[in-house]
Amino acid sequence: MAATNGGQFKVGTMPAVNPYGRADEELATVAQREERRKRRMKCFAYVAAFAVFQTAIILIFALVVMKVDAPKFRVRSATFDDFQVSTLNTNASFNIRMNANLAIKNKNFGRYKYEDSTIEFFYQDIKVGEAAIPSGKAKFRSTKKFTVPVVLSSASVPGNVLGDEFSRHAWVPLTSRSTLKGKVRLMLIFNKKKSTNMNCIMNLNISSKQLQDLVCQ
Ligand SMILES: *[C@@H]1O[C@H](CO)[C@@H](O)[C@H](O)[C@H]1NC(C)=O
Ligand SMILES: *[C@@H]1O[C@H](CO)[C@@H](O)[C@H](O)[C@H]1NC(C)=O
């Protein structure tokens, strides 16, 4: 009885109190839902935009920062401690103590650590000098410069060949070659192996006692 009365009371009175209440409530709910949907869409749009942005950043990072270039290794200049040259046509020779200034240019976003190596100097294809290169590091985007002592000797060059060279001009064409093996460190954790070759040509001017016309590949 009470339940039936209650039911009757409800059914009977609700429309009377507010005939449009339900419809208004429904309208409000629909509007709210629409609002929420819009907000969610906006949120998705932000997330998507952020994902695209982040992907772009990662790509740029991968292309620029993680890209590893072979460092450039070259002869920069030289000074001389002793410079003995004989220009006799039939028996020319040289015996020179040179301090070769070398450079390792590391453009990478991480230091380059290289192993022990050697640098060799040639006249034509005859080796006329050699020096040890101690292992070391070239810092993040910088050029490491150091000097190695080299004895240049024409002991293996036939005296008449060199004599012929000197009869034409007062300089000795030389080439220098070397290979460095090492690793570029990226983001302080990854190591990427990278080796670099030196291939330089130069002229040793025996009248000015200077190294000139230095060109490195
Ligand atoms: C050639 O010159 C060197 C020193 O430069 C000398 O020791 C050698 O005896 C010379 N040889 C000849 C065949 O003249
Ligand atoms: C070698 O040095 C001399 C003296 O400085 C200079 O006159 C000459 O031009 C130089 N040789 C070359 C090939 O540049």
Automatic annotation (TrEMBL):
Transmembrane parts of this sequence: 43-66
Pfam family, one: LEA_2
Alphabetically ordered keywords of this record: Membrane, Transmembrane, Transmembrane helix
Gene3D superfamilies attached to this UniProt entry: 2.60.40.1820
UniProt xrefs under InterPro entries: Lea14-like_2 (IPR055301), LEA_2 (IPR004864)
Every Late embryogenesis abundant protein LEA-2 subgroup domain range: 102-193
PANTHER family given in the database record: LATE EMBRYOGENESIS ABUNDANT (LEA) HYDROXYPROLINE-RICH GLYCOPROTEIN FAMILY (PTHR31852)
Protein name: OLC1v1035301C1
UniProt source species: Oldenlandia corymbosa var. corymbosa
Phylogenetic classification of the source organism: Eukaryota, Viridiplantae, Streptophyta, Embryophyta, Tracheophyta
